[in-house]
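Researcher: Next sequence.
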Amino acid sequence: MIKQARALVYGIFGLIVAIICIRLFLQFLPINHSVPFVRFWLHFSDIFVGPWDEIFPSIKFEKSIIEIYSIIAAFCYIIFALIIERSFSSFKHSSSRDILVALIDAMFKFIEFLLISRFLFRLFQASISSSIVRFVYALSSIIYQPFSGIIKDIEVMDGTIIELSTIIILVIVIIMDIAAENFFDIVLPPVKDSNNK
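Model: Next structure:
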């Protein structure tokens, strides 16, 4: 059952990434965008890249377009698939201890992903008009807010900000992730397989 769920997750997210890759290919080629198939594909794929729209400006030269936000969307879908797969794989373990450890590890990985996304969005001046940027800022602020102002951020140039508070939080979360794994290994040691004696 778990194997089928994992295959379904990879299948769905793989299809989404393939749809985005075809979009990128069509945008990159100097083709006629008024052709019905091209119009259909670009509108259809908007469903999957829409939340990332306007995160960063597209790169345009002559008749070709490189949509940075579509590349980021594809990358995020791959990360989402890995996080969801990690959560599903926790249920394949036989003991409730292994399930708990895997779920807590998946939670830490999700928080780390949020904080890294926040840091990169601030560093590369992601547009706040993008819904995914607003979502990441809102969700990560739950973790970020208690540490806000712990250290002064560095403004490099043209509004580029190195959010040092986020780096500190990320280091703390990674340390807590490692500590949680070690804690469970000490308090609830894994059951040794009797066949390995």
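Model: Helices lie at 2-28, 36-49, 68-89, 96-123, 131-144, 164-187. The first strand starts at residue 59 and ends at 61.
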